[in-house]
Amino acid sequence: MSQLIMKHPDFEPKKVGFDTAEVHAGEPRDPYGALIPPIYQTSTFYFDSTDEAARACDDYAESFAYSRITNPSQDYLEQKLAALEHAAGAVAYASGMGAVSGALFAELQCGDHAIFTRAKYSGTEDVTSDWLPRFGIQHDVFDASDLSQLEPLIKPNTKVIYVESPANPTMVLVDIAAVAEIAHRHGVKVFVDNTFATPYNTRPLELGADVVIHSLTKYMGGHGDILGGAVVSNDTEFLRRCRLGTLMHFGAVIAPFTAFLVCRGLKTLGVRMRQYNESALKVARWLEADPRIEIVRYPMLESNPQYDIARRQMKGGSGMLSFDVKGGLEAGKRFINSLKLCTLAVSLGDTETLVEQAAAMTDEAIRQGVNYFDTAWPYHSGKSETVIGKILQNYPRESFYLADKFPGHQIADTYDVKAVFERQLEKCGVDYFDFYLLHNVYEKSIETYTDPRWGIIDYFLEQKKKGRIRHLGFSTHGGLELMERFLSQYGKDMEFCQIQLNYLDWTMQDAKAKCELLRRYNMPIWVMEPIRGGRLASLTPEDEARLRALHPEESVAAWAFRFLQGVEGVQMILSGMTTPEQMQDNVRTFAERRPLTEQEEKVLLDIAKGMYGAVPCTGCRYCCDGCPMGLNIPMLLQVYNEMKFSPCTNVGMRVEALPEDKRPAACVGCGQCTRACPQNIDIPTVLRDLDEELKKIPSWAEICRQREEAARRAREAR
User: Is the pTM value of this prediction over 0.90?
Assistant: First the structure.
């Protein structure tokens, strides 16, 4: 679409070189003779007649009416992008993630299915993991280096296969033509994030892709001073859905000045990419020859396992590369901190040389002696097993212990016990599990686990005999009576039990009595939730002061671990670690066994008494997966507990800040959350109670209104 008179109306991008296209494509003939197109810094446009206005309203995509939909500055940028990709058109967004989300939601709807490459930009990963499920859109992932995984994942409702090539930040390539051939046999569209390559190095549409996505922030802008994104395609109807759907209604609109700056950057894209290609290859070869470097990942290295793909679909390898420094995390830090002309910053594609460190926590953890890794079928939307398997493949199998779990607590009639177990081995890339657990044997799942028609326990005992399970146990969030019932029936077959155990739950959830029961059965104790979802790592300033008065050098989390060191029967403690600092603190804590003294334990349990909540939520988030309203239930339950202790506006503000449809009153009472809750919390009832409690205190908005009214009266009185 363009209402502009083009400077070169007969211009055909495919018939000229890239450098010519980037300069002249989309250039309007300015009525005042300006060589560089001006910036159309306006929000709206006038019409000469009502008929003209009516025509514009009939088709916003073909008229300049309002800059949230189209704008001349945006238009000539889109024409330039389409020309460089040899496409029919483009839609520009305010950011790369605006383009990613805009493209996906323009194509997908509730009930659809999509497939993504495993290696992809973290923002895209967040969309797939957190946002698509909220809209009822299913997805699977595959390894881009093994296309045999792709076709079996395609379902009748699969609409999109989404790939990055090269992937951010692993530099893994995708054979775009091969993916397109598979997808189109099934009537599935192929989306390609072409940010790393740019159209100078790769044109995915010419390889069979249907949609190309760019973060204009990177190479296209080229100067590190803008945010932008774009969707490019030959499918004009799809582009209309992007413009009149996700762009118009989600509002991720590129600003006219930003569009102008991207066009400025595009005029030098070719010369910059040629230099990026040349310089990056030199750096990659230099690093590869250095004995201090473990591995270098760059498409155009002859040692790259995907070199043939790179040569086939790329003109050059672009300016991004990744590499591993021998010596792990600390060696990587020393390397980065020694650089003189490189800048430690996120992003890519501008005139600076930027460097980031992907914290190699697993490498460092193993180097420090950590050797037990825990995963499960549902963790991280089903991706945990695959990720941990991929990581651990870099280490000898005998150097670590791997624990997995059978999801009997969420079993349905369609579950095939053997198929699930075989799939778990495959995803983890192992021949056996060192430890295998019946996941969450509790009041609602015990009948499933013990029902002879499923044969669950018998099957896993057989796998143990075959050596595919070295040690069989169970985890539970159930009550004491439930545990005793299960142990009396299957205690002889179980080798360990994993329970929620920490000093807060020592009495609140009968953890002390559960430990005593397990000791009666001579059952080793595995610990989950040792710091209760992080809550015991962040106490009130007053409580922290009490602990630091006894041991100033001790972290708050270390106190929770030392409490468990004194519990008889505890043989393994699971600890989730998010940062290298947390990992190092854990390593220091467990370097030696230092159980709490009697005095220290007394102080800790006294602190726990002041923390007891009205509902025993652990923040596991199992309740969130099936919530039709997408409520943040753990946060609401936390607010409920806080309200029970100290009803006040400050607490209520957390709920007031939520949209109306995410507040407790939005609960429809379906009960899905309660059925999924390991703690058996009657969540709908609690949310109704919370809603009533919130009504008893003035809202922050009302307080602000009252204050303003009082101030007004005071001004009038003066």
Answer: no
Question: How far is C-alpha 189 from the chain's CA centre?
Answer: 23
Per-chain mean pLDDT for the chain: 84
Q: State the Cα–Cα distance between residues 539 and 23, nearest whole angstrom.
A: 59
Tokens representing 441 are: 């044997």
Going by C-alpha positions, the residue among 685, 704, 697, 602 that lies closest to residue 642 is: 697
Six-digit token string for 566: 């004194």
DSSP three-state, residue 546: helix
Highest mean pLDDT of the ranges 127-131, 310-314, 650-654: 310-314
CA distance 633 to 402: 31
The pLDDT value recorded for residue 707 is 47
pLDDT value of position 560: 93
Q: What is the pLDDT of residues 68-84, one digit of tens each?
A: 888 888 888 998 899 99
Mean pLDDT is lowest, of 217-226, 359-368, 476-485, for: 359-368
Pairing of strands 113-117, 211-215: unpaired
Q: How wide is the angle at C-alpha 534 spanned by C-alphas 531 and 536, nearest 5°?
A: 50
Separation CA 517–CA 569 (nearest Å): 11
Which residue, among 681, 525, 517, has the nearest Cα to 614 in the 3D structure? 681
Distance CA 631, CA 640 (A): 14
Domain ranges for the chain: 13-269, 622-702
Q: Round to whole Å and give the CA distance between 86 and 232.
A: 9
CA distances from 196 to 203, 261, 300 (A): 12, 19, 13
Return the bridge partners of 436, or none.
Answer: 404, 472
Element at 222 (helix H, strand E): none
Comparing 590 with 533, the larger pLDDT belongs to: 590
pLDDT of residue 1: 47
E strands of 468-603, at which residues? 469-476, 497-500, 525-528, 570-573
Residues 375 and 404 sit within 8 Å (Cβ to Cβ):
yes
- Alpha helices (runs of H) in 145-186, residue ranges in sequence order: 176-185
| Total residue count of the chain as it appears in this document | 718
Q: Which residue type, as a one-letter code, is found at position 579?
A: T
Q: Count CB neighbours of 710 within 10 A.
A: 10
Residues identified as active-site: 68, 121, 193, 218
Cβ burial 537-557 (10 Å sphere, 16+ → b, else e): bebeeebeeebeeeeeebbbb
Number of CB atoms found within 10 A of residue 701's CB: 10
8 A C-beta contact, residue 139 and residue 114: yes
- Residue labelled with tokens 């590369």: 321
With 70 as the cut, is the pLDDT of residue 20 above it?
A: yes
Q: Among the CATH numbers 3.60.140.10, 3.90.1150.10, 3.40.50.720, 3.40.640.10, which is that of 13-269?
A: 3.40.640.10
